[in-house]
Amino acid sequence: MTAIAPAPLFDHLRRLTNSRGTFEHACFAEPRPEHGFCTDDMARVLVVTTREPDPERTLNGLAGTALRFLDEAQALTGPCRNRMDSVGRWLDEPDVLDAWGRCLWALGTAAAQSGVAHVRRSAVMQFDRGAQARSVWPRAMAFAALGAAELLTVQPDNRAARLLIIDYSAGVAMPNGDLAWPWPEPRLTYANAVLPEAMIAAGVTLEDASLQQRGLDLLGWLLDNELTNGRFSVTPVGGSGPGDPRPAFDQQPIEVSSLADACARAATVDKGVVWLDGIRAAAAWFQGDNDAGQLMWDPETGAGFDGLHADGVNRNQGAESTLAVLSTLQQAQRFSIVSQ
Which domain of life does this protein belong to (predicted)? Predict the structure, then answer.
């Protein structure tokens, strides 16, 4: 008998979180407070908790913790700090790197999807603050554009979000004309699928069919590159370029969850079965359909394992990997993906 992919479990995420935030690292299942917190993870916490259907009270509490953390991370002019130590001291200065973009992604998602009125209102105010800034980094702008697209679904007249997504679209790299390597960078690096996902989202928001199709085409190419016989063999932590051998390691859960998110967005605007196949392959990767044939999560607690190696699994259960499996299973549930 077939079954829907497993539901996300938030037990381990709760264990990693205290009143200040979600600890970035763990030794196996045990949180490591000495490594502190980061905005990147707290943005992901806000995303998964606010887009969870019918969240229980504790998830709303986690969302509130994440929203407060992101508020403290932001400068009044928009840039974000990323790293906080275990006692609440910021360790860096505000900037417009990926943490800024992920912060806006999360705030836009919360504004559009949270069932808590206070969270929605606060998220809009914080988004407007962050959207004063711009970044030269493609992934940072892509994440920010995803947040703007989310916010515009519920506030189509939000000026800050619209200006941001217009500026993002103006900076998207034009097609390079290379059919063998159409990727806008010489190598795949990290969170790769966010680049085509943002193109799709911006194309839909701005009613720019050309930009939307460019995103779909680029995501289709990326899926072809990352899939081997229907199984994800994703870009390793060191990146990959034309002709690099596969499989390659270490593979990171964030690559898989980014692909699931991008395929989910593509599936809302295009009926191609390839997008559902991508979500299915992402969920299956965590369940052992990967290059090592190993489970990449703990189905008892919902924890994600930190990395897939050639000789096995890094069984530390940090925030990024846990949030990656939660996000992926949410998308599988959303599209009623059948477990393999």
Answer: Bacteria
End-to-end CA separation in angstroms for the chain = 10
pLDDT by residue for the chain (340 residues), tens only, comes to 357 799 999 999 999 999 999 999 999 999 999 999 999 999 999 999 999 999 999 999 999 999 999 999 999 999 999 999 999 999 999 999 999 999 999 999 999 999 999 999 999 999 999 999 999 999 999 999 999 999 999 999 999 999 999 999 999 999 999 999 999 999 999 999 999 999 999 999 999 999 999 999 999 999 999 999 999 999 999 999 999 999 999 999 999 999 999 999 999 999 999 999 999 999 999 999 999 999 999 999 999 999 999 999 999 999 999 999 999 999 999 998 777 5
| Environment class of 174 (CB within 10 Å of its CB; exposed 0-12, middle 13-18, buried 19+) | exposed
Of 299, 301, 303, 329, nearest in space to 316 by CA: 303
**Number of C-beta neighbours around residue 242 at 10 A:** 12
Cis peptide before 156 (omega within 30 of 0): no
Calculate the alpha carbon distances from 103 to 62, 147, 181 in Å.
Answer: 15, 8, 31
Q: Quick check: helix, strand or coil at residue 114?
A: coil
Length of the chain equals 340
Distance CA 222, CA 218 (A): 6
By the 10 Å C-beta count (0-12 exposed, 13-18 middle, 19+ buried), 95 is classed as: middle
Write down the residue that tokens 């196949």 correspond to. 277
Domain ranges of the chain: 38-168
Please, are residues 21 and 65 in contact by the beta-carbon 8 Å criterion? yes
Alpha helices, DSSP H, located in the chain:
11-16, 39-50, 57-73, 98-113, 117-130, 138-154, 159-170, 194-205, 209-226, 253-269, 273-286, 319-334
Task: Give bridge partners of residue 228 from the DSSP assignment.
Answer: 231
State how far the Cα of 52 lies from the Cα of 7, in Å rounded to an integer: 10
